[in-house]
Amino acid sequence: IEVLDFFADRLKVQQREAGVRHDLIDAVFALGGEDDLVRLLARVHALQAFVATPDGTNLLAGYKRAANILKKEGYAANTDRHPGLDFALSYTPEPAEKALIDALGAAGPHSAAAVAGEDFAAAMAALASLRAPIDAFFDHVTLTDADQNKRTLRLPLLAQFRAAVLGVADFSRIEG
């Protein structure tokens, strides 16, 4: 393992010298559990291309907003690592809320499958499909609704969004 850590550190230095942003390298390496440096590098390059797009920039902003809300609400990070939306709504969701639920139901599994297949560009494309729904959710849904039931069920929805993004890279380490 020490040899792998050495090579990983050297790869980080080499990539920084080649112009890859350090925060993107850190965002991918932070996921851990990866021992294939070629796969890590492919993921870093896909992430670099993605965050340079408007979808990537706006998704990053949406991720940071969701993560900050979850942190403020005391919603633990380890509660959102399970796949799929495994909660039932006891009310009729607002259109933007329903759109995010549907988008997560499609994008989360698609992104996870793309990562498993080492198609990191496809994983980023799946995440890009979440940009408009998360923006609309924040624009049109009141997270801190007076109805405690709505508030309680909307936090897991944001946690699922966070989990989908964290399946590709640790966006909390990306600057900007």
Helix amount: 55-70%
Question: Helix and strand succession?
Answer: HHHHHHHH
DSSP summary: helix tally: 8
Number of strands: 0
Described by strand count, sense and barrel closure, the largest sheet is: none
Runs in which pLDDT lies below 50 for 5 or more consecutive residues are: 79-84
Averaged pLDDT, please? 86
Summing up helix and strand content along with how strands pair, one would put the structural category as: mainly alpha
Describe this structure in words.
There is one protein chain. The chain is mainly α and 176 residues long. The chain is built from eight helices and no strands. α2 crosses α3. The longest helix has 22 residues. The protein is elongated, with a radius of gyration of 17 Å. About 3% of the residues have low confidence.
